[in-house]
Specification:
rod-shaped, 117 residues, single chain
Length: 117
């Protein structure tokens, strides 16, 4: 007899049902799903240990949370040393002269050696 393959979605639904009504459902589940209780307990343990990565693919997780998948793959861009230096210079000028606007701050940066593009 070949073992039945359970999809991540099916596993998740079964475990969620088991968590909702643990005592009553565990008695019914093996008959309804042809599963042994120990399998359900193992799946429940896996879910509790790391629900974000056990059963669902990233696509399924994003769907469950109503999130756009592109936001899940985004990583922060490394800030260049030059950009940090410019921001520090802007901070120094603004701290000394908070009344100056952006144009006067840029003029001060050019005078002190900073460059803006």
């Amino acid at each position: 007899m070949q073992k039945k393959q359970w999809s991540p979605e099916q596993k998740l639904l079964i475990v969620l049902e088991a968590l909702k009504e643990e005592c009553a459902i565990l008695a019914k589940l093996p008959r309804n799903t042809e599963l042994h209780v120990s399998v359900i307990h193992r799946w429940k343990k896996e879910l509790l240990e790391g629900a974000d990565k056990v059963f669902a693919t990233i696509k399924a997780q994003a769907g469950l949370l109503s999130l756009n998948r592109t936001g899940l793959y985004w990583t922060a861009k490394k800030v260049s040393k030059h950009e940090v230096e410019i921001k520090n210079l802007i901070d120094k000028i603004h701290t000394r002269h908070p009344f100056k606007g952006s144009r006067r701050t840029v003029d001060d940066m050019v005078v002190t050696g900073g460059q803006c593009h």
